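Basal-body rod modification protein FlgD, Spectribacter hydrogenoxidans. Tokens?
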Amino acid sequence: MDVSALQSLGLGSASTGAAGSKKDIGQDQFLELMLAQMKNQDPLKPMENGDFLAQLAQFSTATGVSELKTGLDRLAESLSVDKALTAANLIGRDVLVASDTLVHDGGGAAGFLDLSAAGAVRIDIVDAAGQTMRTLDLGTRAAGLVSFEWDGLDNAGAELPAGSYSVRASARDGESEHALPVLAVGRVDSVDLSGPDLNLHTLTLGNVALGDVRRIL
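Tokens:
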């Protein structure tokens, strides 16, 4: 509500003393000023209905914006609490993330394949030099997630050095063969809450964004 409009009607500081020099007024103050304005208006020039409704709409809009901001602040606080609770529940859990890298720690490694259709599945374990060290034939599998395990040995049965290895997976259906997405397993050991997004840290996969997690095991 425009306080200067009241002053032009002769209300002056006596009518607006409760508001002082502040530009913002509360609901009760607004109603008091509105009644005072109606009582002191010129009988020969009464307030137009449009002016009255415009002032009501202006106050209603300002009040609505204030209430909306309060609601958004409460929602943000609630989401922050939910994020912390989600993070606490993920520590110690295994997650599946799209990655064609397996970490062999001396005991082999495991992962999953995402089959869009049934087919005969084959996996090649490849070292950093691009050499295929081990080939695993998983046989014919149905569509869906297919788990696999690698014991850390090469095709000759020798133990391979610990480290990171790439996985190339494919499925053959009749005469056609197509590559398969590989999902690596990582165990969450800590969670970063400092940023706007929830980031997970795993020993084998490093930092992983929560949005990149395909499944929580």
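Residues 93 and 111 are 15 Å apart (CA to CA).
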